[in-house]
Amino acid sequence: MYTPALEHLCIVMVETSHPGNIGSAARAMKVMGIQDLRLVAPRKPYSQDTWALASGANDIIEQAKIVPTLQDAVADCHIVIGASARSERTLQWPQMDSRECGVFVAEHLPQQKIALVFGRERSGLTNEELDHCNTLVHIPMAFDFFSLNIAMAIQVLAYECATAVRLATPSETTPPDPDDALASAESMESFYTHLEQSMIATRFLDPENPRLLMRRLRRLFGRAGVTVSEMNILRGMLAAFAGRKFQTRE
Question: If DSSP states are collapsed to H, E and C, what string results for the chain?
């Protein structure tokens, strides 16, 4: 069943090694009604296996966007969810399981554009790539030492999201104020650059010894869900601070 809200959900695959996985992923998306596929620097995007395993989802592959970086892939998105089985990290990201992810997506579509990001077949997503994610999602399995094929993982999450969206009851509310919409990933990245420059200029951040400060701030603002109007306030504050002289304690 066609569900218009799913037009605002995209699947992002990062540096996929095996072109057959792209075809299988496209088929997994097709049967769940998800159309938007984005490929970040795939090793080999297309081969005979790609088309064979797509099995009727050729249109998704033909329309897929191929971009050089994850930042480019999610620039127009408001919420970025990274698929990751790794939990032991220096910094903890907000996490949810696949069922919770489906409910979360259903609650935010179609008002926000959402990306589900999947990493490399062998190593997943790097910490630097996770910096672009608001939250992580994992698929609970019976054994910790097993992992799913990337196309299987996409199928599971696509099913959970599509099912939750179709079960959701549309609420009859007034159209949302554009200023209350979440800031896009592109806008957030510009803010992070501005924030880092401001902290260096005021000597709050030592670029030679950053101590994960920017990564921690990304987690903070990522959890906050910054809106367009809030972003305008934050950028205005940073611009105002740039015009002042700061004194540091000796």
Answer: CCCHHHHHEEEEEECCCCHHHHHHHHHHHHHHCCCEEEEECCCCCCCHHHHHHHCCCHHHHHHCEEECCHHHHCCCCCEEEEECCCCCCCCCCCEEEHHHHHHHHHHHCCCCCEEEEECECCCECCHHHHCCCCEEEECCCCCCCCCCCHHHHHHHHHHHHHHHHHHCCCCCCCCCCHHHCECCHHHHHHHHHHHHHHHHHCCCCCCCCCCCHHHHHHHHHHHHCCEHHHHHHHHHHHHHHHCCCCCCCC
The pTM of this model reads 0.80
Question: What pLDDT does 172 receive?
Answer: 45
Nearest to 133 by CA among 73, 206, 196, 60: 73
Q: How many CB atoms lie within 10 A of CB 64?
A: 21
**b vs e for 137-176, b when ≥16 Cβ sit within 10 Å of the residue's Cβ?**
bbbeeeeeeeeeebbebbbbbbebbbebbeebeeeeeeee
Predicted confidence (pLDDT) per residue in 196-244, tens digit: 999 998 888 888 888 889 888 988 898 888 999 999 999 988 888 877 6
What's the pLDDT band for 30 if we cut at 50, 70, 90?
A: very high
